[in-house]
């Protein structure tokens, strides 16, 4: 909230904002949140894990942001992302490398999968500014101004984006 005082944003057992009634923070892990971030302006963001009716390994995580005492979900595993793909992964973590700036904008890396959650994992970089989620880059997509594809490198590998940054303008 930016006043210098500590304020609770979310804890295990709380109703998850943006999720159906009875879906709570906690999940299969011993911690309800992962990679909590706080900007110098007091905005906070975190990757949360969920449990409750209808929650399974294909929809049990998401990204939340708190700004001025208001918590909202930015992206949730299993939801539509882009080009017929969904946020999801048959592997361990879907969301990673979370950042938040003083304007309350967030950026993060997310894995994408097909609706059956068994397609080749495609990493992607996202930003949410003023409540609008936007794809910045995706594995297999053309890099702006070039003929090269993100992730198209000799020998392959499974890490396309390893570090991201976010400036004050949300870029």
Provide a descriptive summary of the structure in words.
Helices cover 0% and strands 38% of the residues. With 171 residues, the chain is mainly β. The strands form 2 sheets. Strands 6, 7, 8, 9, 10 and 11 form a 6-stranded antiparallel beta sheet that branches. Strands 1, 2, 3, 4 and 5 form a 5-stranded antiparallel beta sheet that branches. A hairpin with an 8-residue loop joins strand 9 (106-113) and strand 10. The protein starts with 23 loop residues before the first strand and ends in a 33-residue tail after the last strand.
Q: How would you describe this structure in keywords?
A:
38% strand; six-stranded antiparallel beta sheet; 171 residues; 11 strands; mainly beta; five-stranded antiparallel beta sheet; 0% helix
Write the layout of secondary structure elements.
Elements: E1 24-25, E2 33-38, E3 44-51, E4 61-67, E5 70-76, E6 80-82, E7 85-87, E8 95-100, E9 106-113, E10 122-129, E11 132-138
- Content of β-strand: 35-45%
Quickly give the structural class: mainly beta
What is the arithmetic mean of pLDDT?
82
End-to-end distance, in Å?
Answer: 22 Å
Q: Count all strands and give the number.
A: 11
The low-confidence parts are: none
Report the total helices: 0
Give the CA-based shape: globular
Largest sheet: 6 strands, antiparallel
The portion of residues assigned to helices is under 10%
Radius of gyration: 16 Å
Helix and strand succession? EEEEEEEEEEE
Structure in a nutshell:
The chain has 171 residues and is an all-beta fold. It is 0% helix and 38% strand. Strands 6, 7, 8, 9, 10 and 11 form a 6-stranded antiparallel sheet that branches.
């Amino acid at each position: 909230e930016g006043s210098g005082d500590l304020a609770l944003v979310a804890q295990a057992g709380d109703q998850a904002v943006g999720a159906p009634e009875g879906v709570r923070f906690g999940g299969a892990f011993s911690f309800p949140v992962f990679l909590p971030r706080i900007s110098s302006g007091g905005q906070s963001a975190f990757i949360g894990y969920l449990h409750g009716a209808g929650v399974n390994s294909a929809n049990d995580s998401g990204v939340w942001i708190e700004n001025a005492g208001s918590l909202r979900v930015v992206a949730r595993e299993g939801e539509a992302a882009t080009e017929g793909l969904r946020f999801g992964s048959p592997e361990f973590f879907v969301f990673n490398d979370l950042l938040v700036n003083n304007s309350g904008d967030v950026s993060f890396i997310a894995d994408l999968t097909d609706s059956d959650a068994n397609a080749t994992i495609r990493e992607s970089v996202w930003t949410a500014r003023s409540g609008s989620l936007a794809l910045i880059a995706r594995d297999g997509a053309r890099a702006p101004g070039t003929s090269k594809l993100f992730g198209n490198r000799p020998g392959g590998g499974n890490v396309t984006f390893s570090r991201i940054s976010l400036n004050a303008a949300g870029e």
